[in-house]
Design a protein that fits this description.
Blueprint (H helix, E strand, L loop, with lengths): L1 E4 H6 L1 H9 L4 E4 L5 E4 L37
Parallel strand pairs: 1-2
Antiparallel strand pairs: 2-3
């Protein structure tokens, strides 16, 4: 556990954040004695929701028709 004053934390914030990201517990103590802990937040993974793209995708009526550019390759 690493404790620093608020004044010190203001000048070393980037370094303290790196320590917290590395698993070190960092406590910042204000002049009135109130303390705060810097903790890394885990990344929130977005999960797809079934049906969330409804109405966003449109397929034309002839999408499965043979393409003119490939007629010479067709049987």
């Amino acid at each position: 556990m690493h404790q620093v004053s608020l004044k010190e934390a203001e000048t070393r914030l980037a370094e303290l954040i790196e320590e917290a990201a590395g698993g070190e517990e960092v406590i910042i103590i204000r002049s009135d004695g109130t303390s705060f802990k810097i903790v890394p937040l885990s990344a929130v993974k977005a999960t797809p929701k079934f049906g969330s793209a409804k109405g966003l995708v449109r397929i034309s009526d002839d999408f499965d028709e043979p393409l003119e550019d490939f007629e010479e390759y067709a049987p």
